[in-house]
């Protein structure tokens, strides 16, 4: 026997007593968001590898490429894992008819990239000062 969920258009019919199957549009939207975060994670990893391996050394600042590149790689790994956890939590909330949690990923990403950019600017400035002295 099936039942209709009370007034939520995002939920479809399911057997009584179980989680409700969300409307496919909401499931696909959740998946698209996860895939967007996955692309961001991949771009961070590739960007970090490019900085660490392909960027010319900073004159007078040994290891500067790794100081910039490794945090980007680690941020990419964190975004990959956290985006999966968020996808899973959102999917669970959709099935239960609960409100979605507010994502911390945008704040984490923006803050960490801002810090890495500031460190990169300081290292580039230090390289310019020490390289021309």
Can you walk through the features of this model?
The protein has one domain. The chain is built from 3 helices and 2 strands. The chain is elongated, with a radius of gyration of 22 Å. A two-stranded antiparallel ribbon has the order 1-2. With 133 residues, the protein is mainly alpha-helical. Helix 1 packs antiparallel against helix 2 (64-96).
DSSP strand count: 2
Major sheet size, sense and barrel closure:
2 strands, antiparallel
What share of residues is helical? Answer: 55-70%
Strand percentage, roughly?
Answer: under 5%
**Shape assignment:** elongated
SSE arrangement, N to C: EEHHH
Secondary-structure class: mainly alpha
Number of helices: 3
Give the spatial strand order of the biggest sheet: 1-2
Distance between the termini: 81 Å
Number of domains: 1
Structural Rg: 22 Å
Query: Any low-confidence stretches, pLDDT <50, length ≥5?
Result: 1-7
The pLDDT mean sits at: 87
Please provide a brief summary of the model.
The protein is mainly α. 68% of the residues lie in helices and 3% in strands.
Note the topology.
Elements: E1 2-3, E2 14-15, H1 24-54, H2 64-96, H3 105-131
Antiparallel strand pairs: 1-2
Helix pairs in contact: 1-2, 2-3
What keyword list fits this structure?
single chain, 133 residues, mainly alpha, two-stranded antiparallel sheet, 3 helices, disordered N terminus
């Amino acid at each position: 026997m099936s039942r209709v969920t009370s007034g939520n258009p995002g939920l479809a019919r399911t057997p009584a007593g179980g989680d409700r199957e969300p409307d496919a549009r909401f499931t696909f939207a959740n998946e698209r968001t996860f895939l967007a975060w996955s692309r961001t994670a991949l771009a961070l990893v590739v960007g970090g590898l490019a900085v660490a391996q392909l960027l010319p050394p900073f004159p007078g600042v040994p290891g500067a490429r790794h100081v910039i590149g490794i945090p980007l790689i680690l941020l990419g790994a964190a975004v990959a894992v956290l985006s999966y956890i968020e996808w899973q939590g959102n999917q669970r909330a959709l099935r239960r008819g609960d409100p979605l949690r507010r994502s911390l990923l945008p704040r984490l990403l923006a803050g960490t990239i801002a810090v890495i950019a500031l460190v990169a600017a300081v290292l580039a400035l230090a390289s310019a000062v020490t390289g021309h002295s």
